[in-house]
Amino acid sequence: MSELSIPKTQTAAIVRKQGGPVEFDDNYPVPQAGENEVLVKVLYTGVCQSDLHTKAGTATGADGLPITNIKLPHVGGHEGVGRVVALGPNMSPDETLHQGTLVGVRFASRVCHECEYCVSGREQHCQKATNHLHHEDGSFQQYCVLDTKYLTLLPQDIDPKVAGPALCAGVTAYKAVRNADVKEGEWLAVIGAGVQLTIETVQYGLAMGAQVIGVDAGAEKQRFIESLGAKFLDFTKCRDLVDEVRKITAGGTHAVVVTSGHPRAFQKLADMIRIGGSLCMVGIPPGDAHLDIPIATIVIRGLKIQGNLVGSLKETLEAVDLVRLGKVKPHVQVRPFRDLPQVYEMLEKGDIPGRIVLQL
Ligand SMILES: [Zn+2]
Ligand SMILES: [Zn+2]
């Protein structure tokens, strides 16, 4: 695409106020790449649960309060894959970055590169970071500007349809399994319910050599999770979930990852974990829900408990690479961009097995 063929306006999915509907604006301005920026034509984008929560105003911050301080109109999308169409002023193309280079639009948009988190490869915790959810327009638009100092250069041979979900859900799942510190052949229980991330976590757990139990509800989820090679427990049918997990794992699982954001998913977790095992939490319940595990239990049974917030750029590319190598096979359904409102409805009901990717 030559720079001349870049239009002045584009279609974007915008939310005018939190709690309001998502609408399509066909006259949304195409941003211009500034210094150290590139303009990207978005090809595909995944839809993340946090897009839905941000749109609805139900996303919870670290203080337990709803996140309301966001850029409006809000343009979500942070599982985007696109190609560079223009470089910022004074930039010349080189071997790695030129027109046509395949890049990702991730949650984090910019980081400071200087703080203790940035310099230690944990830049997802950078306190000066901005993101494509609260501060900058994401991939729910045809053209997006990205910072070249924090650019997600994808493997150029990866299928752009399947790479998107790896950029948020995939890396979150990958990092959670790594944080859970589950070794080859050990047991990992993934506690989900109606969130897509459960499937990814099951897949990354299997890819990293664990024996996995997916805990979710419904026959469709069961078929899907079992088809991946994991065991399945339907928490709506189990008489005693802890008991079932202990039975399958002969005494308790080595690790638990909770992907669900429902407060009930966090109950009685300690009882299903083996001595010395770990609990890694990903889902964020609304409000100030607390983890109810007696301190005595944590100490005496030597449990490791930690939270998990997406992953760094390096970890994202590791998660992407497992997809590229075919070790994790995303089950992706491609739908037109204009289906976003229906996809949100499906996400609300929690009935999407696999992932929906929108084609822009
Ligand atoms: Zn996300
Ligand atoms: Zn920083």
Automatic annotation (TrEMBL):
Keyword Zinc on entry: yes
Enoyl reductase (ER) domain ranges (all copies): 19-358
Gene Ontology CC: cytoplasm
Cofactor section: Zn(2+)
Alphabetical list of CDD domains matching this protein: CAD3
Family: Belongs to the zinc-containing alcohol dehydrogenase family.
Protein name: Alcohol dehydrogenase
Organism, as annotated: Capronia coronata CBS 617.96
